[in-house]
Amino acid sequence: MRPILCLVTDRRLAAAPLEDVVAAAVAGGVDWVQLRERDLGDDALLALADRVRDALQRRGVRAELHLSRRVDVALACGADGVQLGSNAMPVAVARRLLGAAARIGVSTHAPDEVCAAAADGADHAQLAPIFAPLSKPAERPSLGLAALRASAGALPLLAQGGIDARNAVDALRAGAAGVAVTGAILAARDPRAAARALRAALDGARR
Is the model's pTM score more than 0.90? Predict the structure, then answer.
């Protein structure tokens, strides 16, 4: 299985309509798109999800669409999964609502939280921040690669926080199944090229 490249959105960083930037990034190699636009209300978030899906279809590219925290919007738009926060809906409840085929992830900030997510039945976890974020001021100390090593094996892990094409390989070697990025793609002058560079780094690490 090839390493996962997940784009976590923040439309404020995009130099063009988010749906167009997302489609370009998926064309460059992004596997999952996580819509994380917390300031949007129900209707606006649903409309954005629909625009993203339409843009992917127009470009003839495919990626899983996940909603950050919003199980209700995920249901409404037929998303492939959700990413739950540490204080969000329990994994079991999300599973019951979305069905067995939905991909349910949990955002974590310590190895013990990864273990808890595994015990709760999550499909994967995002562990952050591994390094200082590229897209926003740091809100907590960086965990470093040691936290990935300590967490590896409980369930598939996506390393998040300060990940770019230069250090993505280090995250994989520390036990991550892939990476979740925001600034490395959305803040890039050419999002497709940035995604392609990350994809090449991840795939090269597995050869």
Answer: yes
